[in-house]
From TrEMBL, chains A, B:
<feature type="region of interest" description="Disordered">
    <location>
        <begin position="1"/>
        <end position="21"/>
    </location>
</feature>
<feature type="transmembrane region" description="Helical">
    <location>
        <begin position="235"/>
        <end position="256"/>
    </location>
</feature>
<dbReference type="InterPro" id="IPR011531">
    <property type="entry name" value="HCO3_transpt-like_TM_dom"/>
</dbReference>
<dbReference type="GO" id="GO:0050801">
    <property type="term" value="P:monoatomic ion homeostasis"/>
</dbReference>
<protein>
    <recommendedName>
        <fullName>Bicarbonate transporter-like transmembrane domain-containing protein</fullName>
    </recommendedName>
</protein>
<dbReference type="GO" id="GO:0005452">
    <property type="term" value="F:solute:inorganic anion antiporter activity"/>
</dbReference>
<dbReference type="GO" id="GO:0006820">
    <property type="term" value="P:monoatomic anion transport"/>
</dbReference>
<feature type="transmembrane region" description="Helical">
    <location>
        <begin position="351"/>
        <end position="369"/>
    </location>
</feature>
<feature type="transmembrane region" description="Helical">
    <location>
        <begin position="186"/>
        <end position="206"/>
    </location>
</feature>
<feature type="transmembrane region" description="Helical">
    <location>
        <begin position="539"/>
        <end position="557"/>
    </location>
</feature>
<keyword id="KW-0472">Membrane</keyword>
<feature type="transmembrane region" description="Helical">
    <location>
        <begin position="516"/>
        <end position="533"/>
    </location>
</feature>
<dbReference type="InterPro" id="IPR003020">
    <property type="entry name" value="HCO3_transpt_euk"/>
</dbReference>
<dbReference type="Pfam" id="PF00955">
    <property type="entry name" value="HCO3_cotransp"/>
</dbReference>
<feature type="domain" description="Bicarbonate transporter-like transmembrane">
    <location>
        <begin position="42"/>
        <end position="201"/>
    </location>
</feature>
<feature type="transmembrane region" description="Helical">
    <location>
        <begin position="472"/>
        <end position="496"/>
    </location>
</feature>
<feature type="transmembrane region" description="Helical">
    <location>
        <begin position="154"/>
        <end position="174"/>
    </location>
</feature>
């Protein structure tokens, strides 16, 4: 193995290396530095955001309707509805059904539609996320400890959070999120994508996923056993068929997408259609196969509520206890909770209004980071979006929407990373080499898909026809399709590859192998930190803060280990890297000319001059 | 669609086309002709074969032991043992157990080992095939009608067949097989490969295959039901897991093979090892997963005999009836049939010795064609084998081996197409573009794999651990890996592709689109004929004759429809095609020069000269 190891830096003395390093360091001024945008205080940033985005592109983004819009709308509907229902069920058990599936659907539908119409960055879709769920659970626990009703307290927290987001937007504090670089973005993206893949395949950290069906005590099996009686239900058949259909759905989608660059079908338009509708087709095909070929096998279904009304059914007219769990002797609920919580019903503890400011700070940081990092990831120059950023305006809007959600007892929503990546990727036109030709920036997909989530309340029973494993197959596809684009992941894979066969990226070409592997190892350590926090129930709430830690680490810790040009090559935007490479190549050429001049001179003179060159920078 | 249709021939008048055609026709003398080798009568061909092959390369082919030898031997063992056992079971039911699994294993082991050591074309492995099975069944029916014992009659047929093959080899009649061209080869290859794939996936024409497990009346389910009792066996679990494991095995093998051209693993040697052992690894991995993860699910096993003795167990010492089927009251068999049949025990009908010459003619033609076409396919110049052909000597040997088999009551063996293709492909080293670098021509793989088949009689119970679906996955892989290399299949796929995106092969470049599609359609018709005959029980025996029909069709019928140069482009060997293309391009260049000269002349003169050119050939 050792003999195959090709170090790309020439074998050289320490002096030579120092000299080379010195040259590299001075090729571009400010290499590897992360600039902070100038502040736009007193609402200037907010107004600039609105002008730049909604004010300029709204009509274009609302009218660019075409086949892609339809295809991506359907795709986004599938992407959004399944986690919405799943999160809805978990909210139910976490908050004693004060918030449930109906509330989650309603929140997703109205917030998504409203946000799509008014926001500045319509490519970022909102949805339920793990951190919000955990935060809500924490608030529920606080209300139990404080002995105040949950919904009014939750409403007050929402109001406080809205206040914080307003202040933040007003003083342009969102610009600090832009200090995050590819280093942080990639850690966050890989984390979210890995959660997606783990949730689809099944992981040691959570209950869901295809492989989890092999566990006879899986919830879906227990539910069917209860429903059908032990004799008629064989969990193993259900498990194996679930795995088969999940993998097949994923493979079918990849196959349909692969047609795009193949010579098959009669023209490019038909190939593009199959590509665009691949997820919808995959879902339809395997849903049909399930029902036609395996009608007798029970597979897990989407957990769909039976009617459209608040989930919380009351034991009595005071509506503080939950039917039937807390009044098993009663055959009928007295009613459901009202949509608007009575804000002043704080069990006589009015100070709770001010206590709520504390947890609100936590949930504000959550909104700030979860949204911020996702927005940063999606609107990175790599993705080729042209319509401009709008962090202040959009954060303000998220605060507003979640304030309304809080008042109605609906769950909070923030930007959901993977659906955002999926939407951008599917609206992007690429050439055969993977370079971006154009991105169709539109509000329509976001709007239509979330409107359809609302409509789904009307055809809840039809939704039940889609087996859960088919949706897990879709998530698996989304995870696998997204992970390949993350540079951190590509660099991680280099550990398993033969160095001489590494793809010849800029850092492979100019840095020594140990240096970029060291960088990857540091990134893995940070990733592991975030991953462990995210998967440890007790401390999961601080996961966004762990991600936040990556920003100062990149700003102050990494420059202590790496040269500025190394950071530029590993962490810079494409343009910066190209600029540096150009400067480097230019320098090399000049040097070669100088070298060949030297060769004509006697060798001792060359030695002398070479000695001189180390220690100061070339100004070529 | 029509506007996307690109015709490669320039739009031209009929006269222009005729002229172009005339030019093409005369570029190469004897284009599209199929030459017949001169006869080497009176054993000269036989001796030439031995000198050319065994006499020259035997030591090299017996000593080129390396990692590839081990890998391909294991692969060939897996490839050969499974059909051997499957055919064994069918032979049992077809001949009332006069020939069974033990006989099939024994015949494969000794014939393969002996043939590997003595034959001239060791890259062609022997095995049980469908036509031989059908032929044996026919002979069994004849003996029932004639009321003579099966085994002695079968022995006489074998002796007659040996006589015919000896005469054929002595008079070099095998040279007629070489009249088959790619046209016939491809039809035959696609037929055999499609049978392989159908047998793996499950087809409407046969009982086997992964999808067939979904039928609750599948034999494997009925067997398990009988064995385990209805309560404990759920056929659907078994069916779905079978499909999952079959597809997973196939996918795993393809993934392991794909590593070869990837940058993964530390060096090329380790990538090559994984590639070479991919099938063995796939089988091991999924056999382990089956037993570790799904210990409780019953999957179909290889049908392995319990002890090494003739399958036919006798009711009494005369041994004419089969225990226990024909004497159900007896608790123990009296013994088994003796290995050597008493040749004169013909139930007093001595004329049967001469009657046997009739069916022997049929089985001779079967040997002649089944071997001949497979040999022709494998030793085609495309495959890059250098050690020379040996049709006469090898046919003589096959006759001899099958004569011995006939005397011992063992099944006949002939060259088995797909294992041969698999062996050659796996011993071939290709560059990144799929061009052959070298082929390791060896006797060792053939020898070791068939010797291992013999050894398997010692570890019959271990063989049972490999689930049948894993082997079906291997067959699926073999079929899919082979089908892509068949030009007929590639041309068939063009029907589903956009003409402007067709791969730019010689015929696409120079022929008009309708012409080569017509050729493909004719090939499909012949394929359909052979396919239907092959899959219609009553007439399946004439399937090799149907294949034979393709040869005269190519010699006399196709030239009536196609120009000689068209046949050359579609049906010629690579070298001929290159030669023609070179001549064509040279002609075009010269013409271009002439054209540019013409352009200087007045236009009416050009017209006149152009008119003259049609009707006679250019001698450029």
């Amino acid at each position: 193995m050792a003999d195959e190891f090709e170090d790309n830096a020439p074998i050289a003395s320490k002096e030579d290396k120092d000299r080379e390093n010195e040259i590299n360091r001075n090729l571009i001024p400010d290499a590897g530095k992360v600039p902070l945008d100038p502040a736009q205080l007193w609402g200037k940033g907010l107004i600039a955001d609105i002008k730049r985005t909604v004010g300029t592109h709204w009509i274009e983004e609302m009218t660019n309707f075409n086949q892609k819009t339809v295809a991506v709308s359907l795709l986004m509907f599938i992407t959004v509805i399944a986690p919405t229902l799943t999160f809805g069920a978990v909210y139910g058990t976490s908050t004693n059904f004060q918030i449930g599936t109906v509330e989650t659907i309603l929140a997703t539908a109205w917030t998504g539609t409203f946000f799509a119409l008014t926001c500045g960055m319509p490519m970022c879709v909102l949805g339920s996320t793990g951190p919000c769920l955990i935060m809500t659970t924490v608030i529920y626990e606080i209300t139990k400890t404080m002995d105040v009703p949950f919904l009014p307290f939750y409403a007050w927290v929402s109001i406080w959070t809205f206040a914080y987001t307003t202040i933040t937007a007003f003083f342009d504090l969102t610009r600090f999120v832009k200090l995050a670089t590819k280093f942080t973005d990639d850690i966050f993206a890989l984390l979210i994508v890995s959660i997606f893949i783990f949730n689809a395949i099944g992981s040691p950290f959570g209950p869901g996923g295809l492989l989890r069906y092999l566990d006879p005590d899986n919830k879906s099996h227990l539910d069917f056993l209860k429903e059908l009686g032990g004799e008629e239900y064989d969990y193993l058949t259900s498990a194996v068929l679930s795995i088969l259909i999940g993998i097949a759905t994923c493979a079918t989608i990849f196959t349909f997408r692969g047609l795009k660059t193949s010579p098959f079908l009669c023209n490019q338009a038909s190939r593009d259609s199959i590509h665009d509708f691949s997820v919808t087709l995959g879902v339809v095909v395997w849903t049909l196969i399930k029902h036609l070929v395996f009608p007798s096998v029970e597979l897990e279904e989407l957990n769909v509520p039976s009617s459209f009304e608040p989930t919380f059914t009351c034991c009595d007219s005071s509506c503080t206890t939950y039917w039937p769990d807390q009044c098993t002797d009663q055959s009928e609920p007295t009613g459901t909770r009202s949509w608007f919580a009575n804000m002043m019903d704080l069990n006589g503890k009015s100070h709770a209004i001010f206590v709520a400011a504390g947890p609100a700070l936590l949930s504000f940081v959550l909104f700030y980071l979860d949204n911020g990092i996702t927005w940063h990831l999606i609107y990175s120059p790599r993705n080729g979006l042209k319509h401009g950023e709008s962090y202040n305006w959009d954060l303000f809007l998220v605060g507003f929407c979640n304030c309304v959600n809080g008042l109605l007892g609906l769950p909070w929503l923030v930007a959901t990373t993977v659906p955002c990546i999926v939407q951008v990727n599917n609206l992007t036109e690429r050439d055969a080499y993977g370079n971006i030709i154009s991105v169709q920036e539109t509000r329509l997909c976001h709007l239509v898909s979330h409107f359809m989530v609302g409509l789904s309340l009307l055809f809840l029973n039809a939704m039940k026809l889609i087996p859960m494993p088919v949706l897990l197959g879709v998530f698996l596809f989304m995870g696998l399709a997204s992970i390949g684009r993350i540079e951190f992941w590509q660099r991680f894979l280099l550990f398993f590859q033969q160095p001489s066969r590494y793809e010849k990226t800029a850092f492979v070409k100019y840095m020594s192998i140990g240096r970029y592997h060291l960088y990857t190892i540091l990134q893995i350590l940070f990733f592991a930190g975030v991953f462990i926090v995210q998967n440890t129930k007790a401390i999961a709430i601080v996961f966004p803060f762990m991600t936040l830690l990556c920003i100062p680490a990149r700003l102050w810790f990494l420059p202590k280990i790496f040269e500025n040009w190394e950071l530029l090559l590993l962490d810079g935007e494409e343009e910066e890297v190209s600029e540096w490479v150009a400067a480097k190549e230019q320098h090399k050429e000049k040097n070669l000319e100088v070298d060949s001049d030297f060769k004509k001179a006697p060798s001792d003179l060359t030695m002398d001059i070479t000695g001189h060159t180390s220690g100061f920078s070339f100004d070529l």
